[in-house]
Amino acid sequence: MMELLSNNIFFSAKIQLTFIVGVFSFIAFFAGCLFPQIASFCLSIFVSSEASEKAEKLLQPYRHLIGLAFGLGFLEIVALFVPILDDYPVIEKIISFILTIEACWLVIRIFGKYIDDSILESALKSGRKANSELLNLAKYTAYLAIVFVGFIFFAQTHNINILSLLASLGIGGVAIAFASKTTVEQLLSGVVLYIDHPFYIDDYIGLPDGTFGRVESIGWRSTKIRTSGKGTVIVIPNNSLTQMNIENFSGAKKVISILYLNFNRKVEAKEQALIEQVILSSTKDIFGLDSRSSRIDFRTINHQDEIRSQAQVSLFILGSGKVSMELRRQLLEMATETINQKLTGYGIDFNIEEPTIYVDAPVTI
């Protein structure tokens, strides 16, 4: 009889304890839901209102997940320290496992939103496009790291032997990495390009092999460049780009120098080709002049009832400073004298309109 009464008292104590734990778990959940406001209030007092607004904007969408983490955390503490659950150790493991999954998911969501907001803010300030492919690679790598840390923590706190599992994963990882050595090199090179930023999407770059064009995308394994003139797309592996000397023209100053050559007669097609060759050969060695963009356009004009030809020479001078730009203009004037001497030697009479027109313009992308 006494034993039965003792069992009833013990069972009644379990019910009461369960009720109390449930009430406090709900309170913990409610406190977790209010955590974004509490954190924002504390930051506004001790840090700044800007940090307070950012924290609330970051945490508020996940207040219910935070509340669930608080509630599960309280249950985990109860399961660890209340003796009444000693007979049911599996309950603590289940609660801990659910808490681990929920915590990893919460951290992933908050981290992903923080990265997206930071990248968007940075892109708006800089005026450049964000590299979505490499950002996704970085985010998913971070997600895997978060899950891995959560799994290790759960295993260590519950005396689960993971050394054998990690060893097998390590051997398998080495085998996979060895089998896909080139792919791994390209992925790592993509990370290097993202960290060093030798160029961004939409930048205008030149490579040692003569490739010249606009960067369309920077992927995990390769980069796509839209070539100038042809308009074709060249796909270059990232591990090749990290070993090249890359010339980035974006942000540089460009001056269009326009010369007008007036001929005393109509210039035939063969002579036009000769004139074009002389102009290009005389200007190609000018430092900072983009000879690939040089243009010579011939047109026929009527001068006092005489048909004559005129050539418009458009030369593109790239530079970054006032002094260097002035130096290149002087070099261009010397090249003009060379053109004059060579064409005169071929018996082609002309005169150059003065003054030479210089037009400041951004680099065409």
TrEMBL record:
Pfam families: MS_channel_1st, MS_channel_2nd. The chain crosses the membrane at residues 20-43, 64-82, 94-112, 133-154, 160-179. It is found in: Cell membrane. Residues 183-250 form the Mechanosensitive ion channel MscS domain. GO terms for cellular component: plasma membrane. InterPro entries: LSM_dom_sf, MS_channel_1st, MscS_beta-dom_sf, MscS_channel_2nd, MscS_channel_TM-2. Belongs to the MscS (TC 1.A.23) family. The keyword Cytoplasm does not apply. PANTHER family: MECHANOSENSITIVE ION CHANNEL PROTEIN 1, MITOCHONDRIAL-RELATED, YNAI-RELATED MECHANOSENSITIVE ION CHANNEL. GO terms for biological process: transmembrane transport. It is a multi-pass membrane protein. This is MscS mechanosensitive ion channel. It comes from the Bacteria. Residues 144-181 form the Mechanosensitive ion channel transmembrane helices 2/3 domain. Keywords: Cell membrane, Membrane, Transmembrane, Transmembrane helix.
